[in-house]
Specification:
With 325 residues, this protein is α/β, with parallel strands linked by helices. Helices cover 22% and strands 23% of the residues. It folds into two domains: 138 residues, Ribosomal Protein S5, domain 2 (2-Layer Sandwich); 174 residues, Ribosomal Protein S5, domain 2, CATH 3.30.230. The strands form three sheets. It has a six-stranded mixed beta sheet. Helix 3 links the parallel strand 9 and strand 10. It is elongated.
Length: 325
């Protein structure tokens, strides 16, 4: 059992406890605490993202992370304590009594953006303090080695919230081949069904590439984690391919919609909602954007759609497979 303490905004000291145990088919990270599901979900997201820049991947064990008191809803200074407790429990850093305050919007880069509570009791995260996690082991900043890419896809429900939403894939090269490819892909912040869909799509699409498996630890983030359907899959796969250097970059955004039941063959299948999604894409496209749609939509595209995109400085293609124009 490993522990790391953190000082809350009200001056109280909370303790994060991490226990490592055989995984037994369960999730790699399980979190609980007095703050309810929202806090547990954020704890898991922080821990999973911060693992991205670790050179070795071992999914045989589960780490159970708990808190002994709940921080205020807006507090984030406990995030560094969660990351350090998780690393101590797995032997990534030496187990020692630690007290830490820090938060980050870039845990997937291993970087710490700052801290809100100043305390002389221990580590403080941020520039001029503990700026990146590798410093704890005398290692260089691994954030420069992480490759990230985003692709956008139309979120359409017929309401005022219709928009182009992004999915981001960050990859970090592993020092040695990973075990199961699915275990090396983290999608914190989304439900279990979506996590499974993300892993299956990426594993299938990487199998389509030569030497695409067993080389990366990956983290996937969505701008909007709660949505229905599988039309995000093509955008996800393209973001992954761009992050791994397997896809050409657009001058602007890559906007895509499509799915597949056979990503391992590179095939792109159609999704529902051709007309409204095309209308949404056309309304929000900008100069330099590259729009990729399923080949099956070619005969259903609204009249003048391609010409209207070109007039805005965007380009478009209907594709039957990934990796092909």
């Amino acid at each position: 059992m490993s522990e790391c303490r953190s000082t809350l905004a009200d001056g109280a000291v909370m303790t994060v406890t991490a226990v490592r145990r055989p995984r037994g088919g369960r999730a790699e990270v399980k979190c609980s605490g007095p703050g309810g599901p929202a806090l547990a979900g954020r704890m898991q997201q922080v821990a999973r993202l911060a693992r991205l820049t670790e050179a070795r991947h071992d999914s045989r064990d589960q780490v159970l992370l708990t808190m002994d008191r709940a921080p205020a809803p807006a507090e984030r200074d406990w995030e560094l304590a969660v990351v350090l407790a998780d690393r101590m429990a797995r032997g990534v850093i030496a187990d020692a009594p630690l007290h830490a305050n820090g938060w980050s919007d870039h845990w997937q880069l291993g970087r710490i953006d700052g801290h809100d509570v100043n305390t002389a009791a221990g580590l403080l995260g941020g520039p001029g303090q503990l700026a990146y996690l590798g410093a704890l082991a005398g290692q260089p900043d691994a954030g420069d080695v992480v490759s990230s890419a985003r692709a956008w896809f139309p979120l359409h429900s017929g309401g005022i919230n219709d928009t182009l939403s992004w999915v981001e894939v960050s990859v970090y090269p592993l020092a040695e081949p990973a075990g199961e490819e699915e275990d090396s892909i983290a999608a914190p912040g989304v439900d279990l069904t979506r996590q499974l869909a993300v892993r299956q799509a990426l594993c299938g699409a990487r199998r389509f590439d030569a030497r695409g498996e067993g080389r990366w630890r990956s983290a996937v983030r969505f701008a909007e984690p709660r949505f229905q359907g599988n039309s995000f899959e093509l955008a996800l796969v393209l973001a992954d391919r761009m992050a791994r250097g397997r896809e050409f970059l657009a001058r602007g955004r890559v906007i895509a919609t499509g799915c597949s039941t056979a990503w391992q063959s590179g095939r792109v299948d159609a999704v529902q909602g051709c007309a409204p999604k095309c209308a949404l894409v056309l309304a929000q496209a900008a100069a330099g954007d590259r729009v990729l749609l399923p080949r099956a939509w070619e005969g259903e595209l609204p009249e003048g759609f391609a010409a209207a995109l070109r007039a805005k400085g965007a380009s478009m293609a209907c594709i039957a497979r990934i990796g092909m124009p």
